């Protein structure tokens, strides 16, 4: 896939666990894990907005395009 999710990098920078982020954003840990492990087929803008708000980052810091 050409889109890489760098959620783990942002979590490490904020010293936050996936569980903590899931609770703050209001989505299940399982769904957040799917996103973190690059297995998601889509992400809602509202979810991306909530993640960025909690991690105090931009979508570009979470999502990265790489050529296949």
TrEMBL record:
One of its GO terms (molecular function) is DNA binding. Residues 13-62 form the HTH cro/C1-type domain. It comes from the Bacteria. This is Putative transcriptional regulator. SMART domains: HTH_XRE.
